[in-house]
Specification:
125 residues; alpha/beta; Rossmann fold; five-stranded parallel beta sheet; 5 helices
Length: 125
């Protein structure tokens, strides 16, 4: 069974950190990187992905708008792990109301997070 993760980020480092670490843990893993709303709309694999990793530190897109877009317009039902630098109660609540499954505060331990991701995905197979 092939697993797919969508990483939504306009940063160079954020997706590549996960690319390297996750490929070591899960051999049959496809990673789709989306940098814009257009990427989200055009990349067909994102619609059937098993997990979405959303970078909260994007410069060109609002994370809250991205969550709304993938839940309401793309109807993506996969869990969304939201990596955020903003930790105000209202921001976290808003992201959860829109469909975020897990909040990961930046900075984070990439090895610990990839272990959690691998555990989640490997339990799906």
């Amino acid at each position: 069974m092939n697993l797919t993760i969508a990483i939504i980020s306009d940063d160079i480092l954020f997706p590549h950190l996960f690319l390297i670490l996750l490929k070591r843990k899960i051999k049959e893993l496809e990673i789709v990187i989306c940098k814009t709303f257009q990427d989200i709309d055009e990349k067909s694999k994102i619609k059937s992905c098993d997990l979405v990793l959303l970078d909260g530190g994007m410069a060109r897109m609002s994370s809250i708008e991205v969550i709304q877009h993938i839940r309401a317009k793309q109807l993506i039902i996969a869990p969304i792990w939201f990596f955020t630098e903003i930790e105000t109660e209202s921001y976290i609540l808003k992201s959860k109301q829109l469909g975020t499954s897990k909040i990961v505060s930046k900075p984070f331990d990439p090895h610990k997070v990839t272990d959690e991701i691998a555990s989640l995905l490997l339990n799906l197979t």
